[in-house]
Amino acid sequence: MNTTVLTSVALTGFTVAFFHAAIPTHWLPFVLVARARGWGRGKAIAVLALAGVGHVGLMTLLGLGIAWFGFRLDQKIGTAFPWIAGGLLFAFALYYLWRQFSGRGICHHHPPGSQHQEDEHCGDEHAQSHWHEELKDSPLVASSGGDWPAISGLFVMLTLSPCEGFLPIYLSGVQFGWKGFVLLSAILALATFGAMTLFTWLALLGFDRFRLDRFERYEAGMLGSLFGLLALLIVVLEH
């Protein structure tokens, strides 16, 4: 096992997952709904954690499928797999860079019933802002029906917004077997829960003037750059 490659993959995975979870779509809705419904910080964090389980759980299942397929492929092609993984990472890098420079960005889900969810704007400034307006007429902040409709809505919204950028990380970790899969899954969970909890807690304390929408605006470019560097590192070190 090349520990240098594994460390690089792990650090890249943590960076991807943390900054993905730091964009406002992953924590700002919880802050706004908590304020509208009068939830305390503890309840807001608990609802966030519940939704985070769905978010991380779906990603882990997708990663499991990639790992299983990768293990079968690795058994057949052996030492050629790192080259294939590096080539695929380069392809992902070019794809994300193309999305960034074409202005498409990365699509993220919006509150149930909002106009953005139906139109699916991606990558533009309008789609990443105006959360107050989007939530104003949403059932998430409706006073009737108790808290469960809001909790289930937030759960579904976050679960259906997977960190697709982490899937290439699972692919690059296939050569490290099940131990690598478990390590990357733990990193995904740690970075995701850490970022969402941190920014939700800070916002609930009043520090909600972050310009983190820029992470979402430039997320595709950041992913493209990271995957390009990781692909180059894997190919060079394995060679």
Quick structural overview:
By secondary structure, this protein is mainly alpha-helical. Helices cover 71% and strands 0% of the residues. The chain has one domain (3-238).
Task: Please describe what this structure looks like.
The protein is elongated and about 55 Å long. The two termini are 14 Å apart. It has one domain. Helix 3 packs antiparallel against helix 9. With 239 residues, it is mainly alpha-helical. The chain contains 11 helices and no strands. Helix content is 71%, strand content 0%.
List key phrases describing it.
single chain; 239 residues; mainly alpha; elongated
Largest sheet: none
Distance between the termini: 14 Å
Number of strands: 0
Count of all domains: 1
Low-confidence stretches: 113-121, 123-129
Which value, in Å, is the CA radius of gyration? 19 Å
Overall 3D shape: elongated
Work out the helix count.
Answer: 11
Strand percent estimate:
under 5%
Decide which structural class fits the backbone.
mainly alpha
- The SSE string, one letter per element, is HHHHHHHHHHH
Mean pLDDT, all residues: 80
In helices, the fraction of residues equals over 70%
Secondary structure elements and pairings:
Elements: H1 3-22, H2 28-37, H3 41-77, H4 81-101, H5 115-119, H6 131-136, H7 148-159, H8 167-172, H9 177-204, H10 213-217, H11 219-238
Helix pairs in contact: 1-9, 1-11, 2-9, 3-7, 3-9, 4-11
